[in-house]
Amino acid sequence: MHYSLLQQSAEDFAMAAPPSPNFHLLSDVASQLTAVPSCYVRRPSDRLDLAAVTAPGAAIPVIDLAGADGPDRHKVVAAVGMACQTAGFFLVKNHGISEEVMANMLNVSREFFRLPPSDRRVTYSDDPATNPRLSTSFYPAAEDVRCWRDYLRLPCHPLDDVLPQWPPNPPSFRPAAAEYAAGVRRLAHLLLGAISESLGLEKTFMERALGPLDQAMAVNYYPRCPQPELTCGLPEHKDFTVITVLLPDGVPGLQVLLRDGRWVAVEPAAGELVVNVGDQVEAFSNGRYQSVLHRAVVNNETERISLPMFFLPPMEAVVKSPEKLIDDEHPRLFRSYRLAEFYEKFWNGGLRTQTCLDLFKY
Ligand SMILES: O=C(O)CCC(=O)C(=O)O
């Protein structure tokens, strides 16, 4: 199948009807491509100016969470509040997830994308409502140009209910992913407590107001790309989450837009996780903390894997900034909405809706 696919022209590649559930996957053909098919080529005006990207540095703060439950908690809370207010992205260390658990998660993700298509046994779907799903690009139905990415999307909560739906192969996938997902959930509670306190609210206020957190992971797989300057792993976008916690594999690729308009590369040290504020914290905090544009670039040397864990309010939650955060200097910025409404608008806009939250502004 792959040979006939490669003999097709680039246009055929874009337009052909799927003869099998795995037809669409870039990872099945990328290693045999010597040029980027036209369906992945961005318009010249949309191509990324990679030479203008600032090298990683102090712009993305590193927060040591070791003291989060001790007498120095106020320092951790202040650092988290400052990071949310400035970059909107930060790195965390001493976060409670062991290097072994993170390495196992990365290994099983790599192994998953190396399985022959017939062994992946997960439903291929372009429908964001299908979970788990193995898919490609971002949302092919709403895109003119595809992203150089495949991904596996896994619901992660409640673990006992969702685990039987996860891929059975490789056999170590489920135990490794379950241990990692449970660890990141503990970290998310810690971070939301710190964010809530940094806004002058009780530690549990934000989580109680938003409802029991939903949790889903993406296993992003960006194959090596023969012409990375023509395409993009994921174009700039904001996350519709409360927060996102991303496990990197050490290959550079994540870039974040700073408040001063510069793009900066994010390159965490070994063991660090990347955290970012999503649209729901922006709405809840009445704009004090803002969701930030970020993107993933690809390269012509090696594949890259990234594992964002998305934390969301439940679909029926009403997202609304509390009265305590509204005053004459901070008038209410967003109308309240149900998460389900936000979710639908986000996916229908594809990544072209970089700022879905604008649709809810007064
Ligand atoms: O791959 C990355 O570093 C970024 C991933 C991302 O932004 C996403 O999956 O939404």
UniProtKB/TrEMBL annotation:
InterPro entries (UniProt xref): DIOX_N, IPNS-like_FE2OG_OXY, IPNS-like_sf, Oxoglu/Fe-dep_dioxygenase_dom, Plant_2OG-oxidoreductases
Keywords: Iron, Metal-binding, Oxidoreductase
Domain of life: Eukaryota
MF terms (GO), sorted A to Z: metal ion binding; oxidoreductase activity
SUPFAM superfamilies documented for this protein: Clavaminate synthase-like
Residue stretches making up the Fe2OG dioxygenase domain: 212-313
Recorded family membership: Belongs to the iron/ascorbate-dependent oxidoreductase family.
The protein's name: Flavonol synthase/flavanone 3-hydroxylase
Chain's gene name: FLS1
